[in-house]
Amino acid sequence: MDFFVGLDIGTSSVKALALGPSGEALGVRKKPYPVQTDPSGRHEEDPETIVQATLSVLRTLLDDLAGPGSPGRHLASPDAPARRPVCIALSAAMHGLIALDEEGRPLTPLITWADTRAAAEAAAFKGTPAARDIYRLTGTPIHPMSPLIKLRWLRTARPDLFAKAATFVSIKEYLWFRLFGVFEVDRSIASATGLFDTQAGRWYPPALEAAGITPDRLSKPVPVTHQRSCTLPGLEVPFVIGAGDGCLANLGSGVIAPGEASVTIGTSGAVRVVTNRWQPDPEERLFQYWLSEGMFVRGGASNNGGNVLDWFAGIANWGGAATPGQAAPAATGPGQAARPETSALDQALDEAFALPKESEGLLFLPYLYGERAPIWDAAARGAFIGLRSYHKSPHLLRAVTEGIGYALYDTFRLLDAEAPIHTVYASGGFTQNEAWVQQLADTFGKTVRLTDEADASATGAVFLGMLATGALSKLSDVKRHILEGKTYAPRPERHAYHQRYYTLYRELYPALSKTFHQL
């Protein structure tokens, strides 16, 4: 009757997931929190709001699942045995930064990965000998998302605040400090800071010097299986510090073997593989983060995915949820997936994918929110190329889906060239549309299998918790807990078509980059 809990602290919400010993889903709870943005590129959240939301969903989940003698005993039958969590393991979004005072109180909001105010600092530092050395040892590309660049920006933009800060942490470190009163960071989150020698597993002195800080202003790096015990109401339970959400998404989907890659299109997008080799990209296009001892997640994230569809749905006045299959989900019980209803976007996508001549010579560069991999340019912009009077909204929407796919293929082809990939595991809201999944298989020229990654980061945290507590002997054992979905085979003639258009697509950013920066 015991169970494992994965807590995933995301960019816009926190999720608590409970799995049984065999990986069966027992319940999930989620709570959103607000994001503060403005035209300057600010993207911030309140750390205390996130901590309270995290504790709230955890209490609710434990209350719902507990047996007699536990906080949720009113939900259990009188003769039912008590159910207790074996452990609570953590996942969290990477690249966030909070400045704390000497008492551990926030001096700044959480500055998330999406904050672009440090773009000028990144552009000035990128390409220097120091920056190239830092990427080679840390695996984190030079970009405004990086805490290294955020620190350099804070030092210039807010020197008074920078000097006053005693400690700089991520949101997971702040929660850990609130729970246990110590500053510790898992090596996975640390590996995404641009400050960490990811291969050696320690802070990298030249990176600290570039940021203008010393090691005593950062948390102590610890293994991803590191545990501390916490007393909750009526319960003593170990917490496992866990890893970064992107790394755990691969683990939670079971995409950890050679020849496998994960492709996610949710709000943003990502392409990732797991490798046991440290292999910095000579052109600094790929990240490489720590998953566990001897295991690294390698790939790239795109800023542009479902959020681009959201933008297009807005200007098309479709209204409602823009993520495919996410309109008005029906209420469900614990652990059950919401039943999606058809949205205006779903109907528009059906029309776009039914076009007899694809997008009819239209290309779309999807960099509405700047871009990370593989170009790492926060000033990049979106563009339709080839517009003619006969193009209507279905043509534009079809080009949008193709452009998002080409942007991800930009990263995928780099990984495929390093180590051949035979199977792509697809996840995210776009998988609700079969035609779009087939288009991805045709674009990549690879077999695509669906995987339920709705809770993948939280599931990956559970798997790390199982490893830490001995329920798993090795991470490769997660394969037996993974259920695979439908398979899509690439169609050779359609792959040839997309290769021709991708060749044209690749010429767009180099041709327009100067214009983007001038704008």
Kindly list the characteristics that best describe this protein.
single chain, 519 residues, alpha+beta, globular
Q: Which helices and strands, and how do they pair?
A:
Layout: E1 3-9, E2 13-19, E3 25-32, E4 36-37, E5 43-45, H1 47-65, E6 85-92, E7 98-100, E8 110-111, H2 119-125, H3 129-138, H4 147-157, H5 159-164, E9 167-169, H6 171-180, E10 184-186, H7 187-191, E11 196-197, E12 202-203, H8 205-211, E13 220-222, E14 227-232, E15 235-244, H9 245-253, E16 260-265, E17 269-275, E18 287-292, E19 295-302, H10 306-315, E20 327-330, E21 339-341, H11 344-353, E22 363-366, E23 382-385, H12 393-418, E24 423-427, H13 434-444, E25 447-451, H14 456-469, E26 484-488, H15 492-505, H16 508-518
Parallel strand pairs: 1-6, 6-15, 10-13, 16-24, 24-25
Antiparallel strand pairs: 1-2, 2-3, 4-5, 5-8, 7-9, 11-12, 14-15, 16-17, 17-19, 18-19, 20-21, 22-23, 25-26
- Quote the beta fraction: 15-25%
What's the gyration radius in Å?
23 Å
Uncertain segments are 68-80, 327-340
Distance between the first and last residues' Cα: 60 Å
Question: Number of DSSP helices?
Answer: 16
The main sheet orders its strands as: 18-19-17-16-24-25-26
Structural class, by secondary structure, is alpha+beta
The count of strands amounts to 26
In helices, the fraction of residues equals 25-40%
Main sheet summary: 7 strands, mixed
Mean pLDDT: 90
Gross morphology: globular
Can you describe this structure?
With 519 residues, this protein is α+β, with helices and mostly antiparallel strands. 35% of the residues lie in helices and 24% in strands. The chain contains 16 helices and 26 strands. It has a 7-stranded mixed sheet with strand order 18-19-17-16-24-25-26, with helices on both faces. Strands 3-2-1-6-15-14 form a 6-stranded mixed sheet, with helices on both faces. It has a 3-stranded antiparallel sheet with strand order 4-5-8. Strand 20 and strand 21 form a beta hairpin. The longest helix is centred in the last third of the chain and has 26 residues, at 393-418. The radius of gyration is 23 Å and the shape is globular. Mean pLDDT is 90; it is low at 68-80 and 327-340.
